[in-house]
Design a protein that fits this description.
Shape: globular
Number of strands: 8
Oligomer: single chain
Distance between the termini: 19 Å
Strand content: 15-25%
Radius of gyration: 14 Å
Strand order of the largest sheet: 4-3-2-1-5-8
């Protein structure tokens, strides 16, 4: 099954703030953690919209992202994670690592990058730079609008 991914992070190279997966079958996972010292762009454009109508995250500790992702994907023997930008996959993979040499239990995982703009989108209420809405917009663009 396809899982459309988006992440938000604290400026380029900063810590992961939120992660969302929107599955092909309509399920979604939306996780967020507190960002103590957001950069100015993130403070203005990401932090205020982490929680918006239609996108309420599960607030977790930063070290819980991987476990929650593994639980979400556990019934899929061949998950394919689709993103529109390499950093999304980088942050996703980093979240799966629990400590040096160990990762959460995901036996098989495939990634695909499709360089498209998910916005503008026809999704009513979509808020750009909210990880869940961005994952949903990517799913909409690739599955419904079929570029």
């Amino acid at each position: 099954m396809l899982y459309f991914l988006d992440t938000e992070f604290n400026e380029f190279g900063g810590e992961l703030i939120s992660l969302a997966l929107a599955s092909e079958d309509g399920r979604s996972l939306y996780l967020a953690t507190r960002c103590e010292r957001p950069g100015s762009w993130v403070a203005e454009n990401v932090i205020p919209i982490i929680e918006v109508p239609g996108a309420k995250p599960e607030w977790i500790e930063a070290n819980e992202f991987g476990t929650r992702v593994a639980t979400f994907l556990k019934h899929d023997a061949r998950p394919v994670v689709v993103a529109d930008w390499p950093d999304d996959i980088r942050y996703f993979c980093s979240a799966l690592i629990t400590r040096p040499g160990e990762m959460v239990a995901i036996p098989r995982l495939t990634f695909e990058i499709v360089r498209v703009d998910a916005y503008p989108t026809s999704l009513e209420g979509a808020v750009q730079h909210n990880a869940l809405w961005d994952a949903l917009a990517l799913r909409q663009r690739l599955l419904v609008e079929a570029i």
